[in-house]
User: Fold this.
Amino acid sequence: EAQVTQNPRYLITVTGKKLTVTCSQNMNHEYMSWYRQDPGLGLRQIYYSMNVEVTDKGDVPEGYKVSRKEKRNFPLILESPSPNQTSLYFCASYGWGLAGGRSGELFFGEGSRLTVL
Amino acid sequence: DAKTTQPNSMESNEEEPVHLPCNHSTISGTDYIHWYRQLPSQGPEYVIHGLTSNVNNRMASLAIAEDRKSSTLILHRATLRDAAVYYCISHNFGNEKLTFGTGTRLTIIP
Assistant:
């Protein structure tokens, strides 16, 4: 089954304690990205990656790091979490079509709800 | 980057057609228009996308204005399962940036 898997789904942590949210996709997709969702603000892009070892900042990258060492994995790292990073996080991916064009369909994970105290 | 604006909420009667508008007046010529919807406690799911001409799939239709400054997602016959937040998104395939609007919460009245 085609899917994007995020872990953990729920996490409560304290300010300053480094954490990593993992994201893995089994569709051999080139493109992966992270979003945060906050009430009244919709989804905002944090970072994205167009392929292995290629990452770029989205609209709200401050306080986050990412890496893309393998095609299937795109972890989100919070080196020193702060309460303003309390949010619902989504990972997503999509792939280039067989003819090289984009498939257009972004697949999302189920979300990771993070609370920073 | 293109900004999209949508009404905060809409209501529709069950089994009636629903027209969800989106304004994207600053969209560039190469930005695709995507629609996703988000059911409670789930990640967004793809609905439809297009560039210039109208598009149809099994879920919905997308009508894009000739000047591309606005588009409308059409659900032909709303069911209770269509109650969700619908997001209109601009997708720049050049730099791969996706910009979400704040979404329209669609309520279906039985």
Remarks:
- The mean pLDDT of chain B is 89.
